[in-house]
Amino acid sequence: MKLKHILILATVALVLWFVYDSFSQPGPDDLKGNFKEVAFYRNENNTGPIVRVYAVTVSDTLWTEMQQYGEFMPHTKYGNTKVYFFLEGSPAPDKVTAAMPNIFTHYQPYCIGKYEKDAMSGTTFMRFPFRK
Q1: How far apart are CA 120 and CA 42, in angstroms?
Q2: Taking the alpha carbons of 113, 54, 66, 85 in that order, is the dihedral positive or negative?
Q3: Element holding 67 (H helix, E strand)
Q4: pLDDT tens digits, residue range 53-62?
């Protein structure tokens, strides 16, 4: 076999491997917990910090899975991403806002977790963030 054919075969194999690897990456659908996004907010500002707020229901208090779900959510450099978690079957908001505390006060007792990724890519995860 000529060197040219070997190089073409190697290139095709590498391209196929890259494509397979790209499409086989883990994502939020691979997590346990039956995560369902019930509310989402993203500001219209494309020139400044992007603010994303999610309300998500989960079937159980799987803390590490919730934190992993938050890490899968989109984040923009110098932006802020927040994910509020609620147990499936309990009251959960159908609307979230950019203004703090992002969810209406009557839903706060039902919030079981909050994940946040700030402007400097620092992450925090709190269990029961609205309990005193």
Answers
A1: 18
A2: positive
A3: helix 63-72
A4: 999 999 888 8
